[in-house]
Amino acid sequence: MSVADKSQKKSGGVGETISVIIQALLLALVIRTFLFQPFSIPSGSMRPTLLEGDYLFVTKWAYGYSHHSMPFSPNLFSGRIFGSAPERGDVAVFKFPPNPSLDYIKRVIGLPGDRVQMREGQLYINGEAVAREKVGEINNPDITELNRPVEVWRETLPNGVSYDTLDLTPNGVGDNTREFVVPAGHYFMMGDNRDNSTDSRFSVGYVPEENLVGRANIIFFSIADGASPLEVWKWPSSLRASRLFGMVR
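The chain above was modelled as a monomer; its predicted structure follows.
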């Protein structure tokens, strides 16, 4: 084989490698934009449903697409394309209305037109108390972040969706609120960790439908103690194996 042939073969190999890399990146971009987006839980606001160190797949098509569905949220259009309304009780990722560069994750509690209020720790929707029963206590700092037992209450929304909430503090700051009336095209979000959640009761406010990113569906990885998934040597002590591939409800 001549020097020219060797050079041409080497050049072709490099070109093919670059082409494969570009195609892989484009495929990853399409998947992230239109299908699935990985999301890590940054805070304890959704405990006990979601824990810090949980890694989720969020389905992007669940609510249709807005400009926030795309990386860096380019302002290409307004509203939603192929829009589908969230269901009450969905766990949804959305852009924080005061600062859309931040992703938040909460539970959809109020739909457009709903009246939502907290009275003495009890959730009311449209003037009716949401079914709520105490199911026990948790005394596990990995779940509660506290070194003491915490009460667990199960709520069941009018559409039958049930989930557990934590009651860290009786008469907490968010246990008694004014009545919120959800505007058209907006949603009212709350964290399951009711006494430790910045949500629509506070600075989050009403979430515009175009701020919705997707619905949380499955936990594909979970690790405790602030460890990184890349710190494989910590897996034996920190991996939450029982949470892997669990559905988000």
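Helices lie at 3-35, 141-144, 235-238.
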